[in-house]
Every structure is written in structure tokens, then in C-alpha cells.
Amino acid sequence: MPKIPYTPLVLVADDEPTIRANLRLMLESEGYRVREAADGEQAAQMLQDPEVALCLLDLKMPNRDGMEVLRGHADRLEETPIIVITAYGGSKAAIEAMKLGAYDYITKPFDFDEVLFSLRRALTQRALVAQVEALSRQDIHDRDDDEDLVGRTPIMLQVFKAIGRTAPTREPVLIVGESGTGKELIANALHKNSERAAQPFVKVNSAALSSTLLESELFGHEKGSFTGAVARRRGRFEQAHKGTLFLDEIGELDIDLQAKLLRVLQTGQFERVGGEETIQVDVRVLAATNRDLPARIAEGLFREDLYYRLNVLTIELPPLRQRLDDVPLLADHILRKLSDKYDWPNLALAPEAITYLSAQPWPGNVRELQNVLARAAILARGRIIGVGDLQPATPSAVAPPLLAGSLLLRDILAETECRVIRQALEQEKWNRTQAARVLGISRRQLFDKIRQYGLQE
Predict the structure, then answer these.
(1) Are 366 and 402 in contact (CB under 8 A)?
(2) pTM (whole model) above 0.90
(3) Which residues, including other chains, have CB under 8 Å from residue 35's CB and lie 6 or more apart?
(4) What is the CATH number of domain 9-161?
(5) Which of 37, 151, 337, 373 could potentially form a cystine with 326 if both were Cys, beta carbons 3.0 to 4.6 Å apart?
(6) What's the CATH code, domain 169-316?
(7) Which CATH code for domain 320-397?
């Protein structure tokens, strides 16, 4: 373990004495000095001390909650980074904390190694995100009905953090992920949390129209430019002026249209179909695809220069099989929406049904889960959903678990590795040192794999 060249002072702000005591013991054993704050007001006052090098901050505290403390400290985050540690997970809290400038966001019950890993990075790399306007405070028990980004696993928290970091910028964002993972929800969140939130948010499915119609759809046309063009029409780029344009299925875009899109991204200029007037727009472009764009480039089907222009910022949305611990949370969220829609107050999942859903590979991802639960809710007549209501609903229920979803060797190896690591952890009752020894890897490698696959006890 590397030696710490000095003894930084860490502020631990949490209203739970046990949490504070455990963190103090852990930090002092690593050579850090520790101060404690039992509520938000104490934390805010102690953060004024320039000697404090870093703060571990709980969100829910008396007198003044963590979000207020974070907001009040926004102008000094580069000098004194804040790591949020909270029992209240969820996309809103994670996105808000990262937008406010938190260095990291860790949910309870946390792993001490994870806290130390983040703390060391924060102390050696002080460059944090810029201050942006805060969202409304919401925890997972009081979230808005329209919050569709749901997840508590580390792999999804990384997605929420990425949204918080990239939303305030004006650069294009490429959203990649398998079909049904929720790429449009990411685009919605990026727009909603951007400085363009009050401006238009326009969506176009690049695969839904022919190249001729799509060109007119994107750039508009002049009257008489083609058969059926009986009047001038503003395209989606004009409609999205000052706002955001979301291009779904960008990998399906015709190669000729790709050149015109590249020009708009570079200059903000284009001409309507059949027109000569050059139109200038201010549009942020978000693009999504489930295609392997580098492979499309190799096949001559996608422009390399357009790929690099779109790939300035990338958010990769994991398939549901890589975050199965989120399935109960997603299922609860989906059922609450169905309950509200159809007035089914008794709609719920039986415990064995939750276990069953969490064991499926879900090749169709969240969209498949939504369809399965909607069908099951109807079969259960809006009451308790049992395993019998779920089993006939999806081919993945009988598919070989390892091969469902992908036949790519890297995916199969990744799934196998994930399962072996989980088995070792469960065998050793989540003692990471013992599990690493069983697996023949270092504790640090095991910790990285746990984060990579979003594994939780």
C-alpha cells in the first residue's frame, strides 16, 4: 500500500455515530487525520477551515441536509473535494450531486476499499466538475413520477455521474447500448439537466424513414422541391434551434446524409432541400446507436470523421444482464406506473416472482422487462403477480443463461467471469480478501471487477 506523504485532514459528516466511528477507525488506520460533524450545520462550518482536505458527506442530516452543504461549498470544491456517501440511491440524487460538483457518489452499505479508492483519487486529482444550477432535492422514496432512470448498482451510478458531468456542456454526446436499454431516457436526462432545458427537445429516428424523406425531415424543404412538397417546411434542425436534437439509431444514417450532418455539427449551417439559402442554427446534437460504429466504419458504412465528431463525449448504457441487482427496483418502478395507469392499488410482485425475474438474462433488456410485467399484470388482474404469470411471457425464461443475448465471445467470457466472481464472493460470504485468494487475483483486481460488473452483496 503506497505511503501517504502527508497527513490530510478528512471531515466525516454523518448523523449516525456508528458510521462516523467506523470511518474514523478506517481512515486513521490509513494515516489520515479525522474530524467529525454530526449534522449539516456543523459540516458547513467545518468546511470553512482551509486545513480540511476532503469531506465525506451524508445527504440526509438534521439542521441542514447534504445537498445544501454541497451547494454552499460549490465555490471551493477544487480546493476541498466532497464525496457523497448516502443510503438514498437513485438517479436524481446521483445526477444532482455530480452536477453540484461532488467528486464521487457512493451508496450505503459501502465497501471501505471503495471509499479509500475514491478518497485517494480525489486527494491526488483535484480537478472537479464546474458549478451548475442544482436540481430539486428528491430522494428515492420521494422521487417524481416521471423519473424513468432507475438503478442503484455501481454500473448505473457511473451512468448517472456521466450525465451529471456531460449535461452542462454543449458538445455532442454519443449514447451507446443494446436495444431496449433506455438510450432515449439518457437523452431526455441530458436535455433536462442542461442549460437548454427550457428550449425545444426534438427527436428523430434515423431508421424509421428512407434517406430521401429523412433529409427533408432533418433539413426541411422548399415548396416544389419534390413531388408532394406543396409548401415550405422547416426541418428538425430549425425546430430544435437553441435546444437539443436527438438522433436515434444514428448507425443507420445514409452515408450521403452523414456528410451533411457532419457539416451541421462543424458549422451549424445547412440548406433546405431544393433551397439556396444557408440557414444557421444553434443546436446540441445527441446521438444513439446499438451498432458497433467502428465496425461500420471498417465496412465503409459510416464516416470516420463523423464518428469522431459525435464521439466527443460518450455514455455507455449497460445491458440489464450486467445489472441484475437493479431488476427488483426496476420492476417496482414499472408496476407503480401500471398501478397508477390502470388504478390497480393491489398490484405487486410475490417474493418468488422477484427472485425469478432477477435470475433471467433479459436479452431484450428493460423494454423486455416492461413488456413481461405489463402482460403479467393483466394476467394477474391487477393483483399479486406470481411466477406462473411470468413464465410463459418471455423466450429468455427458457434460453440458455450463458448464451442468451449475445454469441460474441467477449460477451460470453464477460458473463462467465461475472458469474465465477459472484460465486466466489458468495462462497466466502463476501470476504473480498478470501474471494481474491480463491480466484487467484489481487484484492485490487477483485475490487475493480466488482465495480465493473456492478456486483452487490
Answers:
(1) no
(2) no
(3) 9, 10, 11, 12, 46, 52
(4) 3.40.50.2300
(5) 151
(6) 3.40.50.300
(7) 1.10.8.60
